[in-house]
Amino acid sequence: MRAATLSLTLAVCASLAPAVCKAEVVDRVVAVVNDEIITLSELQDLTASMVKQADDVSDPIARDQLRQKHLRLGLDELVSQKLVAQEALKRKLSVTNDEVQNHIERVKLQNKWDAGMLETYLATQGIAEPEFRAQIREQLLRNKVLRGVLGERVRVSDGDVEQYYKSKLTELNAQVELDAAHIVLVVDAAASPAQEAAIRQQAIEILERAKAGEDFAALAKQYSQGYGADNGGSLGRIRRGSLDADFEEVAFALPDGGVGGPVRSKLGYHVVRAVTRYKVPAPPYEEAKEEMRRTLTDKRMKDEADKWVQELERKAFIERRL
User: Fold this and answer.
1) CB-CB contact of 194 with 155 (8 Å)
2) Does domain 176-279 have CATH number 3.10.50.40?
3) Label partner for 68 (CA 20 to 30 A): which of 35, 162, 178, 320?
């Protein structure tokens, strides 16, 4: 059983489960949890991006095994979510729209995003805003339940927080922000392999023109179909963990002024430019301590949460039909 995962910071949102288009199938029940069902479409929504990764595996047997593994892990996660949601109902807990919005604002503040950057992040992850909000609501509800159940078992003192801050100072002082820009060519979810190949080839041609010295901002204004196009493709300053992992890997590996790619995200193909790097000093303790307290509390609570969810499983009626 995959353990319950806590994430209050959504450092971006690495803990979020992206949704992509699923094949048309007759929906069916893949699990029963007490008196509630989990459908195949729910499982597909949760695991589609992970299952798609198996397409890169050439061996058909290994490819099928990887797909089945992702489906089983996804089903375990849905069972866990269902158990926690049922417990929330028993305890008459809920999450308001204001709580969801406040959490989104904190995510934007932590990552120095405006509304456009958040939209870009969601697009690269293949997540529509309503689903993003639904996922945050589910996470916050889970956290409410876990804090209600486990809050008495987990205590974090001011001394604990200060010690944790000191242990993270080296890491915090090594943080880098990158002023970056991109040109994105959108690939429709229904695009054929030939259509996608043509878009990728266009991205390669744009990349070669940028490498040859053409003005990147002008190319972005002419070709980019995403955030920042009217501003030369500018993404502003980004930190690791704030955008698509493959995009960041290319962007942070480039020298200042360098261009690279094309990088495939769920949105499409990106030509990337690294403008300038900036070292980011560690925030003062007083400024960082509440976020540190949340992080440390989450770390300690996770161990207790794993045990509690396993206990719920043992007491519940669970039938998997996958």
Assistant:
1) no
2) yes
3) 35
